[in-house]
């Protein structure tokens, strides 16, 4: 397994070992002890699965309080996956990292607490799964504009398919400070 650090501390790209043979392939998509050794030391409590059609953009989402780490993996198709640092006082506040995740590259993306997360489906359809470090708390579910001009994320489209909630999301500068996590409050 290979773990690659990104430009933002704590955000990691993971390339699990894949064992190929005449039948196909096998891979471990999570192993508590080994992932902890690579800094993904999380008691994951929930697994999610979403299916989306081409051009769908889900995000950018975070929970606060009840922040969640996420370990994202694509079962079929391809997405452009993005993590945005929304921790007040962080040296990388408002900065983001994006990476292609696909059933072909079999990469995983680890997103720590305090980051907003979103993805664009760039294949015909995509089946995306992710482990979460806390339960879903609808009252703490927060959304940040996918096209916030302050973030300058190059999604490669200006007309994604959005949920009504995501289409109405505020920019970072318009989110009340009490709704944003604080740098250093998470372990
Ligand atoms: C996220 C979530 C949603 N739901 C329900 C609420 C709603 O009726 C329906 C669809 O919810 P949403 O529109 O928020 O789904 P979606 O836009 O896919 O939300 C997800 O987006 C990605 C980018 C993330 O990072 C996730 O944490 C989550 O926020 O599913 C749950 O029951 N449990 C959950 O954990």
TrEMBL record:
It is an enzyme of class 5 (isomerase). One of its GO terms (molecular function) is dTDP-4-dehydrorhamnose 3,5-epimerase activity. Pathway: Carbohydrate biosynthesis; dTDP-L-rhamnose biosynthesis. Belongs to the dTDP-4-dehydrorhamnose 3,5-epimerase family. PANTHER family: DTDP-6-DEOXY-D-GLUCOSE-3,5 EPIMERASE, THYMIDINE DIPHOSPHO-4-KETO-RHAMNOSE 3,5-EPIMERASE. Catalyzes the epimerization of the C3' and C5'positions of dTDP-6-deoxy-D-xylo-4-hexulose, forming dTDP-6-deoxy-L-lyxo-4-hexulose. This is dTDP-4-dehydrorhamnose 3,5-epimerase. It comes from Desulfosudis oleivorans (strain DSM 6200 / JCM 39069 / Hxd3).
